[in-house]
Amino acid sequence: MTISKSAAIPGRNVVVVGTQWGDEGKGKLVDWLTESAQGVVRFQGGHNAGHTLVINGVKTALHLIPSGIMRPGVKCYVGNGVVLAVGKLLEEIGGLEAARVEVRSRLRVSEACPLILPFHAALDVAREAAKEKAGTAKIGTTGRGIGPAYEDKVARRALRVQDLKYPERFAAKLRELLAYYNTQLRALDARQVDWSLVPWLRDQPLSAFVVDGQVQFDPVHEQAMRHAEQLRPMIADVSRELNDAHRAGANLLFEGAQGTLLDIDHGTYPFVTSSNCVAGNAAAGSGVGPGLLHYVLGITKAYCTRVGGGPFPTELDWETEGTPGWHMATVGAEKGVTTGRARRCGWFDAALLKRSAQVNGLTGLCITKLDVLDGLNELQLCVGYELDGERVDILPMGADEIERCQPIYETLPGWSETSAGVTRYEDLPHNARRYLSRIEEVTGVPIHVISTSPDRDHTILLQHPFQ
Question: How far, in Å, CA of 23 to CA of 336, rounded?
Answer without folding.
Answer: 7
